[in-house]
Design a protein that fits this description.
The protein is mostly helical and 422 residues long. The protein starts with 13 loop residues before the first helix and ends with a helix.
Length: 422
């Protein structure tokens, strides 16, 4: 764990808002991942098969899917009885400036090319989920290889691979597609990619207007499916707190580890010297998902908690090396698919690096304070020192009991020698 916690960053919004119409002068919604995060795991942010939006547009390894986008557009037009994409292009022409303002970085692409890209990408996303919702659909791209479909779905939730959601919403209206059914279909389609995903939110016209992109819908529903961080349960705002030590160091300090509430991933508790941590099953394919949702949370401050960021912060403090992972696995708290505990520890160290958290609004502040209070208690410190210096191995414990047993025998022998039985 890197024990330096950055609190905030300042971003000059003037370069994005200067000279724009008032209705467009708002904080950009779709960012490129900054180098300090990208360098931790560059592959986590890179699409495998398909580019969506301008950030990965026309990259060589993604060009093969452009043909499939064109085919999906034709399928969409055929399904909705339209002879051409003219209605989509006209709708996009009216919102192209607003759509460009959604992207934080300068785009070296003309309005006309940007418009065509948005139509092609947006119609692909619409038709993709229409095919997945329609159980009778037998599209060759989706049915021939589940791995191919999973790669496409994973690419669509990369933080840099997003379209403004209002564009998709506009296109759904043109396609006369039921919007609520479409969103429910998206949630259903991602259940194989995002473990434990459930449809936890009902969107009305007002709330849907606040949605930035597809990743936000899936992120919000997935984190709500994993658990909750209700206000006031762990502690109040502006509580001073300090770092906790790694899992093996806490065990040496006398803290026990137990498997916690399996229905709420974020429900980490400390009671009577025992740290209860809900079980975590971490597959290697889910690593990019964590990186991208954390990146999303870092740059979207909508007043809600950064749930995954705060949860990963706890794991990062608990895991320094393979011994910490081994302890958590031994206690059936963690399961991983990384081959070795060392590889898993390195992954969590990367995931926890460079996290920006608000120290005045940290959900686990009270938990950290209670853990540290237990560790600093004089009696607990003496017991921890005893365990560390004299009972740190099973053989030391056996030797202690053997010596105690011999001492007891000696005392009994001496007692019988002084006071022989009559």
């Amino acid at each position: 764990m890197n024990n330096t916690a950055e609190v905030c960053i300042e971003i000059d919004t003037d370069r994005w808002t200067q000279g724009l119409p008032a209705e467009f002068s708002s904080w950009p919604k779709i960012f490129q991942v900054p180098p300090y995060l990208r360098n931790l795991n560059e592959k986590a942010y890179e699409p495998k098969l398909i580019s969506i939006g301008p950030y990965h547009y026309q990259k060589d390894h993604l060009k093969a899917m452009e043909t499939q986008k064109g085919r999906f557009l034709k399928d969409l037009l055929r399904r909705t009885n339209q002879k051409s994409a003219q209605r989509f292009e006209e709708a996009m022409r009216g919102i192209v400036e607003k759509a460009r303002c959604y992207y934080a970085e300068s785009l070296v692409i003309s309005d006309e090319e940007f418009l065509k890209m948005m139509v092609l990408d947006g119609c692909f996303i619409l038709e993709l989920f229409a095919k997945l919702i329609d159980e009778s659909s037998n599209d060759s791209l989706l049915s021939m290889n589940r791995l191919c479909l999973n790669n496409i779905l994973e690419d669509l939730i990369l933080v840099e691979n997003q379209l403004p959601f209002f564009v998709l919403w506009e296109f759904l209206g043109i396609a006369s597609q039921d919007r609520r059914t479409w969103i429910e279909g998206i949630i259903e389609s991602y259940k194989g990619v995002m473990p434990r995903l459930k449809n936890c939110h009902i969107y009305d016209e007002r709330s849907i207007n606040e949605v930035k992109h597809l990743l936000e819908i899936l992120c919000t529903n997935w984190l709500s499916s994993l658990g909750s961080m209700p206000e006031g349960e762990q502690g109040e705002r502006h509580v001073k707190w300090d770092f906790i030590r790694s899992a093996t160091k806490l065990r040496e300090a006398g803290i026990k580890f137990r498997r916690g509430n399996e229905h709420d991933l974020f429900d980490i508790k400390f009671e009577n010297g025992t740290l209860y941590i809900p079980p975590l099953n971490f597959e290697d394919r889910i690593e990019p998902l964590y990186f991208n949702i954390i990146a999303y949370e870092q740059f979207h401050n909508n007043g809600s908690r950064k749930r995954l960021t705060e949860y990963v912060t706890v794991l990062d403090f608990l895991i320094d090396n393979e011994k910490d992972v081994g302890l958590l696995c031994q206690k059936e708290i963690m399961y991983h698919w990384f081959g070795t505990d060392e590889a898993a520890a390195k992954m969590f160290n990367r995931l926890g690096s460079e996290l920006l958290i608000n120290p005045d609004f940290f959900f686990y502040a009270k938990l950290f304070n209670n853990v540290n209070k237990h560790c600093h208690d004089p009696w607990n410190q003496r017991m921890a020192s005893l365990r560390h210096n004299y009972f740190n191995t099973p053989w030391a414990l056996i030797s202690f009991f053997a010596a105690a047993f011999l001492l007891l025998l000696t005392v009994l022998q001496t007692t019988f020698a002084i006071f022989p039985r009559s």
